[in-house]
Amino acid sequence: MLELRGVAGGYGGPQVLRGVTLRVAAGEFVALIGPNGAGKSTVLKAVAGVLPRVEGEIALEGRPVQGLSPRALLALGVVYLPQGRNVFPSLTVLEHLELMRDLAPHALSPEAVLERFPALRPLLGRRAGLLSGGQQQLLCLARAALASPRLLLVDEPSLGLAPRVVEDVFAALADLRGRGVSILLVEQNARRALAAADRAYVLELGRTRLEGRGRELLEDPRVAQLYLGAPVSASAP
Question: What is the model's pTM?
């Protein structure tokens, strides 16, 4: 579905990405973890068409897509959920869904999406600015689902949420994956991301350093010591 080969780029100054190579198969859930400043969010921006300067190769089903606008990528089924609660405070939940229906070429109906996100149904008339952080994040996911994504790029969906709400968010992602959506996830909760992902990459200083199945990396002592808060053992490699 998605392949990056030697992708480099930044925001006009020094390069943030210095040679990222990764792939996401059709219907696969892939996590991207690493320390702060590693370039994880920048990878998503490069794929989504919002990074101003990109070198290397980004391909969607073998077709080069670097340089395409976010609107053109949306038409190809690439949906990007940036970090934070990206809602319009004065619009209602229903108006958010209707807005995405008007923008996305292959959008579902709001009713079809509400069947997957029933917690939003009693909130349809409420302005998004009055929702809790968890409700806003579920609205963002519902809006993305309405666009019928083929590839979903998600940046830090659990940031600032209570543990119970985090589980709701990951359940929604699992549901999308179960419907055939390919997912590339950046997540600060590395342990939760690795537990959910089919495969994962560790990014460091703008380069991909490790790759493996999510559960395998979860048990890798190098990953545990660097990113999961495990104690450092003298016998660890």
Answer: 0.92
